[in-house]
Amino acid sequence: xxxxxxxRTVPTVLxxxxxxxxxxxxxxxxxxxxxxxxxxxxxPKPAGHILTDRVAALRACLADFPDDGFDVVxxxxxxxxxxxxxxxxxxxxxxxxxxxxxxxxxxxxxQPMPPFESFYPxxxxxxxxxxxxDGTVLVGGDQDPLCPEGVAxxxxxxxxxxxxxxxGAGHIDADAGFGPWPAVLDWCGRDNLAFIx
Length: 197
Known about the structure:
Layout: E1 12-15, H1 26-36, E2 41-42, H2 51-62, E3 71-75, H3 77-91, E4 100-104, H4 126-132, E5 135-141, H5 151-156, E6 163-166, H6 182-189
Parallel strand pairs: 1-2, 1-3, 3-4, 4-5, 5-6
């Protein structure tokens, strides 16, 4: 059964995890489906592994969007990028706010992930995350090798954020069977914030 055609029309800013950019991961699958449905899908230009360069590339990517006129879907280490972006906005608010953000399978904030050491420490600022978007959801697997303490413990509790935990989903990547992922396409196609696994 193929997923239903998305009805939401705002652009999606896709922040793929490390090493993603070719076929095989759900991010590529999602981009293809949204594009086929007439949706605009953009990603920041590659900017290496240095946090300041990546934040600058993200802000440049977002600059032309209107407030509340786009969604963001981040996976893995780019969830940390979004949290840093949110923290910088709290200090110097400029740039548009997305309507919704989905943070998917962020790696542990306690175990720096090579070669992204500059992304640590991870800012877990409740107010900054709430101010950076109209709404943010957190999604993770229950046996993620990159977040052994669990996404609800590592991020859900300190950010006071409802968390969707998907049984057996690991890091929600191709290795865990997430090439096609209809649930994320469904989220992108609905107007409400809740993520239905």
